[in-house]
Amino acid sequence: MNNAFENAMTQLDKVAKIKNFGDGLIACLRQPDRDIRISIPVKMDDSSIKIFEGYRVEYNNTLGPYKGGIRYHSETEINEVKALAFWMVLKCAVAGIPMGGGKGGITVDSKKLSKGELERLSRGWMQKLSDILGPHKDVPAPDLNTTPEIMAWMADEYEKITGDKTGAVITGKSLKDGGSEGRDTATGLGGFYVFEAFRKELGLPEKCKIIVQGFGNVGNNAAQIFAEHGHTIIAISDSKGGIYNLSGIDIEKLLKHKKNTGALSSFMDSKNITNEELLKLPCDLLIPAAYENVLTDANANKVKAKAILELANGPTTPKADEILFTKGIPVVPDILANSGGVIASYFEWEQNLKNEHWSKKEVFEKLKIMLEDASKKISEKARESKTSFRMGAFILALERIKEKMK
Ligand code: NAD
């Protein structure tokens, strides 16, 4: 079993060997500023009381308020949340936004809750943590299985407790609740901008054959955006399994199929495959967009993609990273590739605080400029230190944090 936090610290050790940042910075980044565990009692629909375990990790706020999503998952535990919070610190630094890193979660299979139970659980998370959160202290957002509606319940609960009406305590809200234009598609679109910035350097053709793992907010949007730009999605999956069609999968029709049948399997002209098979199929670009630790030392040797764009957080273990690097399969790392989400979240926070509303065009133009700039700098850092793009991104992030710490 891979421990995501150990993996994150292995990455930190690695960058410390490539470039000397001084022991102080590395020591500061070895642990979070604080990690908080809470218990959330929820009255269930049958009137029983169930206790859920929740978390908020505030990792580092050198660059600004802690920022990071809230994950609802049955396997979520403190080490996972710590790793995700650590990556948020680096992600915000790479993106060049004035935010630190944090992450939250609840150990829960949210699909098994009724809407009312889900709302009481989400409001309970906010009640227990409202004193440490705030627009200038710690600003959560959505992640796995958390939605704009959940963000709106939490923002409403925060307003009731504190009287703050800006809505800036939480991002990823729907438009009617003060969200930003474009936030829902920003992670997938951001991934596409990063891909375009790197495409030639990765040696990929103008029109690629692409495989996507995950069919949620990120995977689904990414698949649609790449397809709209003339690329062919040849395989895609969700947690139940995937489908494969070398001639291309119509994502809009697949969405309808999933809505009607509850699964991706048995989609027209496609072959059913497992998630493990999907990772080993030949393609130009593999996009993990589901969960961490899917590319490991057990399967990295069998990957036949020409390049990997990490839209999930932490999909590649350090050992798999080494194997892929040796095989010459470049990996565009999560802390750059999926940073479109946090950049748009930062735009939402700024709009809430200034009481402004930016157009979708404005949001996407700003997003593109920031991601092109970050991509260029990371590529330069990787080249200068003759290392991977991941280590290039770590170097850029650590340099920025060190500079601010001074
Ligand atoms: P989501 O809950 O909307 O979708 C997750 C998808 O992954 C679903 O299709 C689910 O069926 C599938 N999945 C779950 N476990 C799986 C497994 N073991 N194997 C294969 N598929 C599996 O979540 P999301 O918001 O799309 O997030 C996906 C990833 O992207 C996560 O790693 C998340 O941390 C990361 N991320 C999300 C955002 C964002 O804006 N939502 C931003 C940055 C990074």
From TrEMBL:
Q: Which UniProt keywords are given for this protein, alphabetically ordered?
A: NAD, Nucleotide-binding, Oxidoreductase
Which residues are noted in the entry as substrate-binding? Answer: 67, 91, 345
Q: Which GO terms describe its biological process?
A: L-glutamate catabolic process
Query: What GO annotations for molecular function exist for this entry?
Result: glutamate dehydrogenase (NAD+) activity; nucleotide binding
Q: What CDD domains has UniProt attached to this entry?
A: NAD_bind_1_Glu_DH
Leader peptide range in chain numbering: none
Q: Where is the Glutamate/phenylalanine/leucine/valine/L-tryptophan dehydrogenase C-terminal domain?
A: 180-406
Please give the InterPro entries that the UniProt record associates with this protein: Aminoacid_DH-like_N_sf, Glu/Leu/Phe/Val/Trp_DH, Glu/Leu/Phe/Val/Trp_DH_C, Glu/Leu/Phe/Val/Trp_DH_dimer, Glu_DH, NAD(P)-bd_dom_sf, NAD_bind_Glu_DH
Write down the Pfam families for this protein, in alphabetical order. ELFV_dehydrog (PF00208), ELFV_dehydrog_N (PF02812)
Query: Which residues are catalytic?
Result: 103
Detail which positions bind NAD(+).
187, 217
What are the residue positions of the site described as Important for catalysis?
A: 143
List the PANTHER family. GLUTAMATE DEHYDROGENASE, GLUTAMATE DEHYDROGENASE 1, MITOCHONDRIAL
Q: Which family does it belong to?
A: Belongs to the Glu/Leu/Phe/Val dehydrogenases family.
Name of the protein in question: Glutamate dehydrogenase
